[in-house]
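Task: complex structure prediction.
Instruction: return structure tokens for all chains below.
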Amino acid sequence: MSDELEIPTVESVTGSGVAIRGNDIDTDQIIPARFMKVVTFDGLGEFAFFDQRFDDADNQKDHPLNEPAHQDASVMVVNANFGCGSSREHAPQALMRWGIDAFIGESFAEIFAGNCLALGMPTLEADAETVTAIQDWVEVNPDGDLEIDVAAETVTYGDTTADVAVDDAQRKALLEGVWDTTALMKANAETVRETAEALPYVENGKRV
Amino acid sequence: MSEGTLYDKVWDRHAVTRLPTGQDQLFVGLHLIHEVTSPQAFGMLRERDLEVAYPDLTHATVDHIVPTSSKDRPYRDDAAEEMMAELEENVRESGIEFSHPETGEQGIVHVIGPEQGLTQPGTTIVCGDSHTSTHGAFGALAFGIGTSQIRDVLATGTVAMEKQQVRKIEVTGDLGDGVEAKDVILEIIRRLGTEGGVGYVYEYAGEAIENMDMEGRMSICNMSIEGGARAGYVNPDETTYAWLEGREEVPEDGAFEERKAYWESIRSDPDAEYDDVVTIDGGALEPVVTWGTTPGQGVGVTEPIPEPEALPAEKVDTARRAQEHMRVEPGDTMEGYEVDVAFLGSCTNARLPDLRRAARIVKGREVDPDVRAMVVPGSQQVKAAAEAEGLDEIFTEAGFDWRGAGCSMCLGMNEDQLEGDEACASSSNRNFVGRQGSKDGRTVLMNPRMVAAAAINGEVTDVRKIKEVALNE
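Output:
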């Protein structure tokens, strides 16, 4: 039965990085709305940051995701308020399908971080100075690995180990493999029913 | 942590249990769905052989991709048709009520929820759309979720959430002439920043909010997310109750009085504790317009556009790029900025009072010949009500295109889009690069009357300089 679904733990992510610089990068930039006219998430990867990556004639523009050296990157290093705006899960889905497994940034918009967690992708936070240092490093070392340790809340690159912060709930969810909440919450169906029936506006699962 | 606020009370009533992650499992009283973010969630449900747990507390509409020119099927756009067909199939299979275009009750999800009385105080409301914060205007706890969370809600009737802090934003005084709810929220975002609200829920209070109609409160709560706050709310009061009474899904007579007692009980206590309090002098505001590419880059219509270097260090780069994209110069005002398009619509500002106020500016005047102007009512009911008052004639006689209900040019998922580097005076909520369908397009956010004034003059105009015309003359 599907409730027994095995959810893998996410204790670490190791891979090369790609820096996407700038504050307030919204989900409309990550995946323009016209690519959301689909009923599955399949194939969204190629449209990640599309309008930044291609001109009107679909020729490649200067963009980190277009650089051959970054094609295997799995850690995206970003600045403040990344993923703001629209709640579209298409945004992390597109980046995941492009190849990203984790994010390090100064800060993340809440809905974006929640969507990432639902996909088992950590969003780790660090101060501006640390983030800039990592961005500089990945630009010079596109093949160099970043080793993210979720439990220790650190990222190691070259000879440097830097502290990164993970929200408590996210940390626990990733480490214990409870980031897929459907099965977890479904198991409480009876308590859910009781909570609902105690509300003045619900009766027998219907609005009254 | 906050104590005794509406947020605390509604949260506690809906908390099912503490999850192993430390998050709370929260019961969802109303799950609104639309065609763009739900199909993948239904797919995930099928993969796991799960059913919709609370179909009677789920309600669907179609808004993002729906054409506003004609509702004839099949839609001209194959992708739109496919999404619509998928939604029709999903709601049929699961027994979910659907405000289908054929019912006359279709519209933008954040317009139809309140309109039908689905949105009520003291409830929890989620939707796969960040502007779900709109429903907080009624004293509901309402927030946007992603598609995996939609799957959770469909399958379990609940969502996993961490409790946030509460910031009270008091808007004091009376708003001046030409100043509206939209200006208040643009000012709040300008002051507190686009990420100032991350980790917070906003409680909007103070005289200016208390004196505001429900539609104004919705405009404010709607854009909470543009300030980083996932939810925003206003304590319910007599204005709220009067607005709700008699609506389709609202209890009647004795049951209404009983329900009102519950609504009163979840208001923030007079001695409630907040994590933060911010005060804004509403009386000092003027109409606000954006000069940049985030909703936080706003300025009073007569104020100079800021020098990027004068902004906090972390805002300088973004501001410089934004000014380049928008082709504006620091020191200039936005007044006089030429526009090619005027868009009156969206979940922020496409309700009947919004259209009425704009009509008072438009009546007897003509749209600038170089501007294409359109009105996209928020719902079929708003459209019908506006037509019953003759607003459609005022707009069409002036040269506006009067269209069907939907999200339309707010996000350019249907055929209503900016072309090339067109500049648009827009009553919507996001001026992100590419948001209105063209990556070179330039969006200037403003209140509906300001949009009307810009349409007439072909440039951003201080609406206080235009004489309003009474609608019943």
